[in-house]
Amino acid sequence: xxxxxxxQPGMFVQEKEAVTLDCTYDTSDQSYGLFWYKQPSSGxxxxxxxxxxxxxxxxxxxxxxxxxQKARKSANLVISASQLGDSAMYFCAMSPEATSGxxxxxxxxxxxxxxxx
Amino acid sequence: ETGVTQTPxxxxxxxxxxxxxxxxxxxxxxxxxxxxxxxxxxxxLMFVYSLEExxxxxxxxxxxxxxxxxxxxLFLHLHTLQPEDSALYLCASSREVGHQSSYNSPLHFGNGxxxxxx
Lengths: 117, 118
Prior knowledge:
The structure holds two protein chains of two kinds.
Chain A: E1 3-5, E2 10-14, E3 19-21, E4 24-26, E5 33-39, E6 46-52, E7 60-61, E8 64-69, E9 74-79, E10 88-95, E11 106-107, E12 111-116
Parallel strand pairs in A: 2-12
Antiparallel strand pairs in A: 1-4, 3-9, 5-6, 5-10, 7-8, 8-9, 10-11, 10-12
Chain B: E1 4-7, E2 10-13, E3 18-25, E4 31-37, E5 44-50, E6 53-57, E7 64-70, E8 73-79, E9 87-94, E10 108-109, E11 113-117
Parallel strand pairs in B: 2-11
Antiparallel strand pairs in B: 1-3, 3-8, 4-5, 4-9, 5-6, 7-8, 9-10, 9-11
């Protein structure tokens, strides 16, 4: 069964420090996508970064980078130089291979990040 | 202007009311989704539409009725809801679904409708 696990319900980080949010996944698909989303208190889910299962390089988008370790089935999000505006819920998600016959993007339970001034 | 717009932002309704949630996307996507987000639970996929056809109905009670008149608009019609249906309802769209490369299409979400059933 496909599953996303985020083991950190809450995290604190000092402003300007880096933080790593953990994500492990389980799938039997050969092709899949891994995503991170940010959800501020306003409710909107904001797409941050994407990693494809065949990508050899770790994805980076500005201050966000994805530490992809395929053998360990982990896709941790690293936020560098944290800002107060980074305080939010962060969700790891996985999209299935088209041939699996499902359209279910699987989401983790989220990690609430609080950046301290 | 955001790519995916949901209205209303907040909705309070009684159990006997009928209301509708609306979602509109301006991204040229051909797949649209309804998700339910309850406190301390993972996002629950409710419905998926691809090219205006429903392709996934995730065992959702019949008191929720989706409608997708075209690839840009998605509705969720609500009737005789229960208090446990109170949640944040999120609409999303993506570039394509069911194709070889669909796994690399991120979902783009709206701001959500915060629904309270009294």
